[in-house]
Amino acid sequence: MSSRRIRTFALVVLPAISTAIARGAAAQTTGNQQQLDEISARGRALAGYQRAAWTASMQLLATNPDPWQVQRYIAYHADSGWVVAFGRLNTERDTFYVSHIAIPAAVNGQRVDSTFEFQTFAAPGPDTDYLVRAARAMDVATMALGVTARAYSAAAIPNEKGEWLVYLTPSADAANVWPLGDDVRYRVSGDGQRILETHRMHVGMLEANREAGSGDARLVAKGKAMRDLPEDSDVFHVLMNRPTAAKVVVTPHHRYRIDVDGSITLLQGKETVVGATR
């Protein structure tokens, strides 16, 4: 398998996702609807990435693949949906050898994210572009985070500038249970070598409690709230949770509702202080 073939799969990134991600990385102000929509877009992308990676990994592991050939995964959005490349990064960190590619299966003429079809390569194919840059970006972010008490999942999603947004979130400790909190988003250079910005999304883990008389879960930070906007991982948490349910995110001066489609609405009420500064 040639490097060109791998790049053909990897470089078909939806412009709408990249554009929303890039705009949303700008400096934060009091939340307007455009900002909330950008957070929604980034959260949906993160959820799509991790859902595909989680599902494809479970399917592949059931086949007992060679662990040397399947050391890590990288997901990316292509015409067929979220595709997952499995393989390994060489010691020089300039080539990613792909052993398997998981593509959303076609069901009744439509691609789904609940099951995957695999292309397996007897001789792993080298990629020296997209996949290797994504792998390096995740590595540099993981090194910056340092040693942690629990395992973390990494996701690298490109923006329209050719940079990476690398998310490090606590790994699920049970099927479809994704702990929310102590998560970070790094903006990394396009070559995957340098961290350009560190954006800590939450300090401390979050609890999901039921408000009396409400069907919505309420997210309340144990640690200090970082800012007055929801975070990408708040949307990710809503979309990944099973069963899916809308949630209310409480910040120091506002309340936001995140619906099951990832959309965000600023709630008006006693706890909302309009125009409050951080």
Short précis:
Helices cover 26% and strands 33% of the residues. It is built from five helices and 13 strands. The chain is globular.
List keywords for this structure.
278 residues; alpha+beta; 5-stranded mixed β-sheet; 4-stranded antiparallel β-sheet; 5 helices; disordered N terminus
What does this structure look like?
The chain has 5 helices and 13 strands. With 278 residues, the protein is an alpha+beta fold. It has 2 domains: 3-200, no CATH class; 206-267, no CATH class. It has a 5-stranded mixed β-sheet with strand order 9-10-11-12-13. Helix 2 packs across helix 3 (33-61) and helix 3 (33-61) crosses helix 5. The longest helix has 29 residues, at 33-61. It is globular. The N and C termini lie far apart (53 Å).
Write the layout of secondary structure elements.
Elements: H1 3-10, H2 15-24, H3 33-61, E1 72-78, E2 81-89, E3 96-107, E4 110-127, H4 130-145, E5 152-158, E6 164-170, E7 184-188, E8 195-200, E9 206-210, E10 217-221, H5 232-240, E11 247-250, E12 255-258, E13 264-267
Parallel strand pairs: 10-11
Antiparallel strand pairs: 1-2, 2-3, 3-4, 5-6, 6-7, 7-8, 9-10, 11-12, 12-13
Helix pairs in contact: 2-3, 3-5
Number of self-contained structural domains: 2
C-alpha end-to-end distance: 53 Å
Which parts are unreliable, with pLDDT below 50 for 5 consecutive residues or more? Answer: 1-16, 24-30, 208-215, 220-224, 270-278
Proportion of beta-strand residues: 25-35%
Along the chain, the helix and strand elements come as HHHEEEEHEEEEEEHEEE
Using only C-alpha atoms, the radius of gyration works out to 19 Å
What is the arithmetic mean of pLDDT? 82
